[in-house]
Each structure stands twice: as structure tokens, then as C-alpha cells.
Specification:
Layout lengths: L3 E3 L10 E3 L1 H8 L7 H13 L4 E4 L2 H14 L12 H21 L3 E4 L3 H14 L3 H13 L3 E3 L12 E3 L6
Parallel strand pairs: 1-6, 2-3, 2-5, 3-4, 5-6
Helix pairs in contact: 1-2, 3-4, 5-6
Length: 172
């Protein structure tokens, strides 16, 4: 049975939600795919309703890779011009890191550290649901914490039974 899917406009909001990095990154930066505004607006709904965000420490490993991709596409740029391309990139990544930390600071939040037990559970989930390793960690956190509501902008979660998926991609 696939995930039970919810639009970003659905009510009631979850009491607590696990966030995939895809949602957070889309909330922060407009990558030009039409997902930024809905993600940002849903993040604001969650913040105003004091819905706690749960995320894994993997978020901080994924962030530089996201910044690298967005920088290469010309989407992520620094507001301060550096003396060379490397300092421009460092400035842009630093500003994105500040935006990420400010975003998280606006919420009641809980960071879940990745443990060997979570990694083992994720490995099984990759095999079972054909997920990426990063998505499997999110599902492993869901199972471990008992929190079934997950917010993501990622088609991979649609196949996972037993979760309430807030994806804003109901037409996809």
C-alpha cells in the first residue's frame, strides 16, 4: 500500500513532522522548478502552527552537495563578490548555510543523530522500497520515532506504506 498523501493546503496539519532535506532546501532557495513558493508557504504554515520539525543530522551532509548543484546551475549566488571564483563560491555556500540555520531556528525542532542502528534499518528500506539512501534514513527515523508524518518534495516516498506524506506533489 503506498503512502497516504497530503497536499500542502490540507488540514489538519500534523502535530509533528519529519522533514526531508528536499523540502527544507526547496523552502530556502528557488531552484526554478515551481516548488519553492508552495514549500515556503507550507513551511510558514507549520511555523505559525508551532509544528515541531524533526530532521536527521544527514541534513548537514546533504547541504553542501545541494549548494554545489545550485551554484553550478547559477541559482545560488553570493551577495558579496569575492576576489576570485573560489571565494565567490565560499561566500555563496556560507550564506546558504546561514539561511539554513536561520530557517531551522524559526521552529521548535529536534535533530536525530544517525546511528549504526538507523543505518542498518535504512539499508533494509533501500532494498524493500528501492529508495535512495538519504530517503531511507528519513523513513528509518520515522519508524524509530513513531512519527508517521513526513514532509518532502521527492517522488521516492510515494511508494512507502505506513506514512503520511506531505509532499505538495499530488498531481505528480
Amino acid at each position: 500500500m503506498p503512502a497516504n498523501r497530503h497536499a500542502f493546503t490540507d488540514n489538519p496539519l500534523p502535530k509533528v513532522v519529519i522533514t526531508d532535506s528536499s523540502f527544507i532546501f526547496e523552502s530556502l532557495i528557488d531552484a526554478g522548478q515551481g516548488r519553492h513558493r508552495p514549500a515556503r508557504d507550507f513551511a510558514e504554515r507549520l511555523r505559525k502552527a508551532n509544528v515541531p520539525l524533526v530532521y536527521s543530522s544527514l541534513l548537514f551532509i546533504e547541504a553542501p552537495q545541494c549548494w554545489r548543484r545550485l551554484y553550478a546551475r547559477g541559482v545560488l549566488r553570493s551577495t558579496q563578490k569575492g576576489i576570485d571564483p573560489i571565494s565567490d563560491r565560499i561566500n555563496a555556500f556560507g550564506e546558504a548555510d546561514v539561511a539554513l540555520n536561520n530557517f531551522l531556528a524559526a521552529f521548535d525542532r529536534r535533530e536525530i543523530k544517525i546511528t549504526k542502528r538507523l543505518m542498518n534499518a535504512a539499508s533494509e528500506l533501500v532494498a524493500r522500497f528501492h529508495l535512495s539512501a538519504h530517503d531511507a534514513i528519513v523513513i528509518a527515523v520515522s519508524i524509530d520515532t513513531g512519527i508517521t508524518d513526513i514532509v518532502a518534495i521527492d517522488n521516492g516516498f510515494k511508494r512507502v506504506d505506513g506514512i503520511e506524506l506531505w509532499d505538495g506533489l499530488l498531481l505528480a
